[in-house]
Structures are given as structure tokens and as C-alpha cells.
Design a protein that fits this description.
The protein is α+β, with helices and mostly antiparallel strands. The protein has helices at about 10-15, 20-55, 80-95, 110-120, 130-140; strands spanning about 1-5, 65-70, 70-75, 100.
Length: about 150
């Protein structure tokens, strides 16, 4: 199963909000746990990229400043220069466009089969962006070939 890193959060949210019970709910929970592990890895790698390009003080700590954004004060990371900020953004974008590959191994077959059925036989109606996302989720699960053999 191949999914882009930037799609993981949307898929997790979609599955999390489905009303399921019994085995379907358990398999969803297992799958969401695998997605959460990847999200945590992405957070760590994103922070490492920021660390690589951020402006640091004499103690090696990242320099930040407080700015008002949407009527809320937020800490903003300062970068060494504009080029460093652009490079950090580029590297994060490249990371988010990478494939997250979940191998269709024997220990995951049952979980993936149940999820494939849940998604492909979903009885909900979608419009707009949610319809586009649902179509993409269907594509992802339709590509699971091991389960269709």
C-alpha cells in the first residue's frame, strides 16, 4: 500500500470519524496506530530539518520571535537567511511528497482486507473536497493487489 506522507493525516481523520463496531473498529484502530507512528516520524524529521536551517544563539538554541498571527501570538522560528528558510521549506515539502509504503505482509492482510472493504463499500455521501479525498482513498485501497489475488 502506497500513500503520500501529506495524505496520512486526512486518511487518519476520515477513518477516525467513521462509525464502526466490532472487528471493523479494531482493525481501524490498528491501522490508525500505524499511521500515527508515521506521523510521529514525520514530526521528528521536520523538526530536524528546521534545526538544520534555523538561526541559533551562542548556546546552540533555535532563535524564535513572537508574532501575532490571526489575532493569536505565536512563536516563529528565525532562519539563518532567506535562502535557508526557503531550503528548509523545500526539504519539508519534498519529505511530505515522499511515499509511505505499508507492506502487505501476512500480519497485516486481515487488517488491510477489512479496511479495504470499509473504504470501498462506504455508504456515505461526499461533495467537494471530501469527495476528492474519498476518491483518492479508494484509489489507495484499490491498489492493494495482494488482497485481491
Amino acid at each position: 500500500m502506497i500513500i503520500k506522507n501529506y495524505e496520512i493525516g486526512e486518511l487518519q481523520s476520515f477513518l477516525f470519524n467513521l462509525i464502526l463496531k466490532g472487528k471493523e473498529s479494531r482493525m481501524r484502530t490498528r491501522f490508525i496506530k500505524l499511521l500515527e507512528d508515521q506521523i510521529e516520524l514525520l514530526k521528528v524529521e521536520r523538526q530536524q530539518l528546521i534545526n538544520d536551517y534555523a538561526l541559533k544563539d551562542e548556546n546552540g538554541e533555535i532563535v524564535t520571535e513572537t508574532k501575532e498571527i490571526n489575532n493569536k501570538e505565536e512563536e516563529i522560528v528565525l532562519f539563518q537567511c532567506e535562502e535557508a528558510e526557503k531550503e528548509a521549506q523545500l526539504q519539508i515539502m519534498l519529505m511530505m511528497n515522499e511515499d509511505f509504503i505499508m507492506e502487505e505482509t501476512a500480519d497485516k492482510i486481515e487488517m488491510l482486507t477489512v479496511l479495504q472493504s470499509i473504504i470501498l463499500n462506504c455508504d456515505l455521501e461526499f461533495t467537494g473536497n471530501k469527495a476528492v479525498l474519498y476518491d483518492r482513498f479508494c484509489e489507495i485501497f484499490e491498489e492493494i493487489e495482494l488482497l485481491n489475488d
